[in-house]
Amino acid sequence: MQLTQIVANRDDPTSTHIFLDMGGGNSLAFFDFPEHGNEPTVRGIGNMHHVALKAARVGFEELISRLNTMGINYSLHGTVEKGSVYLQDPDSIQVGIITGY
Protein backbone atom coordinates (compact mmCIF):
# COMPACT_ATOMS: atom_id res chain seq x y z
CA MET A 1 0.00 0.00 0.00
CA GLN A 2 1.10 3.53 -0.72
CA LEU A 3 -0.12 6.78 0.82
CA THR A 4 -1.91 8.70 -1.92
CA GLN A 5 -3.39 11.75 -0.21
CA ILE A 6 -4.53 13.36 3.01
CA VAL A 7 -7.83 15.27 2.86
CA ALA A 8 -9.70 17.37 5.44
CA ASN A 9 -12.69 15.63 7.03
CA ARG A 10 -15.88 17.65 6.34
CA ASP A 11 -17.61 16.09 9.38
CA ASP A 12 -14.89 17.06 11.87
CA PRO A 13 -12.47 19.86 10.90
CA THR A 14 -9.86 18.60 13.40
CA SER A 15 -9.71 15.26 11.58
CA THR A 16 -8.34 14.16 8.21
CA HIS A 17 -8.92 11.29 5.79
CA ILE A 18 -5.70 9.38 5.12
CA PHE A 19 -5.94 7.47 1.83
CA LEU A 20 -3.85 4.42 0.96
CA ASP A 21 -3.74 3.08 -2.61
CA MET A 22 -5.11 -0.48 -2.67
CA GLY A 23 -4.54 -0.95 -6.42
CA GLY A 24 -7.11 -1.17 -9.17
CA GLY A 25 -8.22 2.40 -8.50
CA ASN A 26 -9.29 1.58 -4.93
CA SER A 27 -8.26 3.36 -1.76
CA LEU A 28 -8.46 2.48 1.91
CA ALA A 29 -9.21 5.54 4.07
CA PHE A 30 -8.41 6.03 7.74
CA PHE A 31 -9.51 8.93 9.94
CA ASP A 32 -7.32 10.54 12.54
CA PHE A 33 -8.74 12.44 15.51
CA PRO A 34 -5.74 14.35 16.95
CA GLU A 35 -7.73 16.55 19.34
CA HIS A 36 -9.67 13.66 20.89
CA GLY A 37 -6.72 12.06 22.68
CA ASN A 38 -7.40 8.55 23.91
CA GLU A 39 -11.08 9.19 24.60
CA PRO A 40 -13.44 7.40 22.20
CA THR A 41 -15.17 9.52 19.59
CA VAL A 42 -18.77 9.00 18.57
CA ARG A 43 -17.67 6.34 16.10
CA GLY A 44 -14.90 5.05 18.34
CA ILE A 45 -11.14 5.17 18.05
CA GLY A 46 -9.84 1.94 16.59
CA ASN A 47 -13.19 0.93 15.10
CA MET A 48 -13.86 0.57 11.42
CA HIS A 49 -16.10 3.31 10.05
CA HIS A 50 -16.48 2.03 6.50
CA VAL A 51 -14.72 0.49 3.53
CA ALA A 52 -14.77 2.63 0.37
CA LEU A 53 -14.30 1.32 -3.15
CA LYS A 54 -14.20 3.12 -6.49
CA ALA A 55 -16.39 2.02 -9.42
CA ALA A 56 -16.57 2.93 -13.09
CA ARG A 57 -19.76 4.84 -13.94
CA VAL A 58 -21.26 1.89 -15.83
CA GLY A 59 -20.51 -0.44 -12.92
CA PHE A 60 -21.94 2.10 -10.49
CA GLU A 61 -25.20 2.34 -12.45
CA GLU A 62 -25.41 -1.47 -12.51
CA LEU A 63 -24.80 -1.59 -8.76
CA ILE A 64 -27.68 0.83 -8.07
CA SER A 65 -29.95 -1.20 -10.34
CA ARG A 66 -29.05 -4.49 -8.61
CA LEU A 67 -29.51 -3.00 -5.14
CA ASN A 68 -32.98 -1.81 -6.18
CA THR A 69 -33.86 -5.20 -7.72
CA MET A 70 -32.70 -7.06 -4.62
CA GLY A 71 -34.44 -4.66 -2.23
CA ILE A 72 -31.21 -3.80 -0.40
CA ASN A 73 -31.31 -0.52 1.54
CA TYR A 74 -28.68 2.07 0.61
CA SER A 75 -28.03 5.78 0.79
CA LEU A 76 -27.09 7.64 -2.42
CA HIS A 77 -25.11 10.88 -2.07
CA GLY A 78 -24.78 12.94 -5.24
CA THR A 79 -25.86 11.38 -8.53
CA VAL A 80 -25.26 8.16 -10.46
CA GLU A 81 -22.79 10.10 -12.63
CA LYS A 82 -20.84 11.60 -9.72
CA GLY A 83 -21.73 10.24 -6.35
CA SER A 84 -21.38 7.63 -3.66
CA VAL A 85 -23.61 4.91 -2.30
CA TYR A 86 -23.43 3.54 1.24
CA LEU A 87 -24.86 0.24 2.49
CA GLN A 88 -24.28 -2.31 5.24
CA ASP A 89 -22.66 -5.67 4.52
CA PRO A 90 -24.03 -8.81 6.24
CA ASP A 91 -21.68 -8.16 9.20
CA SER A 92 -23.02 -4.58 9.56
CA ILE A 93 -19.83 -3.02 8.18
CA GLN A 94 -20.59 0.13 6.20
CA VAL A 95 -19.43 -0.11 2.59
CA GLY A 96 -19.12 2.98 0.41
CA ILE A 97 -18.79 2.84 -3.38
CA ILE A 98 -17.89 6.03 -5.25
CA THR A 99 -17.75 7.11 -8.87
CA GLY A 100 -16.98 10.27 -10.81
CA TYR A 101 -14.48 11.83 -8.39
Explain what the structure shows.
This protein has 101 residues and is mostly beta strands. It has a single domain (2-99), classed as 2,3-Dihydroxybiphenyl 1,2-Dioxygenase, domain 1 (Roll). Helices cover 14% and strands 43% of the residues. The strands form two sheets. The protein has a four-stranded mixed β-sheet with strand order 4-7-6-5, with helices on one face. A three-stranded antiparallel β-sheet has the order 1-2-3, with no helix packed on it. The longest helix is centred in the middle third of the chain and has 14 residues, at 57-70. The model has no long low-confidence stretch (mean pLDDT 78).
List the helices and strands and how they pair.
Elements: E1 2-8, E2 16-23, E3 26-32, E4 50-54, H1 57-70, E5 75-78, E6 83-88, E7 94-99
Structural class: mainly beta
Radius of gyration: 15 Å
What count of domains describes the coordinates?
Answer: 1
- Unreliable sequence segments: none
In short:
With 101 residues, this protein is mainly β. 14% of the residues lie in helices and 43% in strands.
Core attributes:
mainly beta, three-stranded antiparallel β-sheet, 2,3-Dihydroxybiphenyl 1,2-Dioxygenase, domain 1, 101 residues, four-stranded mixed β-sheet, 7 strands
